[in-house]
């Protein structure tokens, strides 16, 4: 299991605490320092069964600079979203847990973290 985190994020710290309390084995990816590539983002989005706009942090200043709120959300514009998120990893919602069984979840709640544990 891998968890993508920003250590400054309280939801990430809570997810790590819960994983530790449950004795889960995991690796941490500090995705702001080690940004995912376009291919990695595509793979995680497939595992999440979500589109990039579903996990985009549109409240970030860089999203406003790029005008992302007005971007179309279509198959034709999907690559634009993914490329922006790869270039500006702050745009990626967190934490994201990827499990050994191929599933993934945006683990912003204790319930989502527990669900990730149940599927591993």
From TrEMBL:
Belongs to the ArsC family. This is Arsenate reductase. It comes from Allokutzneria albata (Kibdelosporangium albatum).
């Amino acid at each position: 299991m891998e968890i993508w985190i920003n250590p400054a994020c309280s939801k990430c710290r809570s997810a790590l605490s819960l994983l530790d309390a449950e004795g889960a084995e995991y690796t941490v990816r500090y995705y702001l320092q080690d940004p995912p590539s376009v291919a990695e983002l595509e793979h995680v989005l497939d595992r999440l069964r979500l589109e990039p706009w579903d996990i985009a942090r549109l409240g970030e200043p860089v999203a406003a600079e790029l005008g992302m709120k007005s971007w179309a959300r279509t198959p034709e514009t999907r690559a634009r979203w993914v490329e922006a998120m790869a270039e500006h990893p702050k745009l990626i919602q967190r934490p994201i847990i990827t499990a050994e069984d191929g599933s993934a979840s945006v683990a912003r709640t204790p319930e989502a973290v527990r669900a990730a544990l149940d599927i591993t």
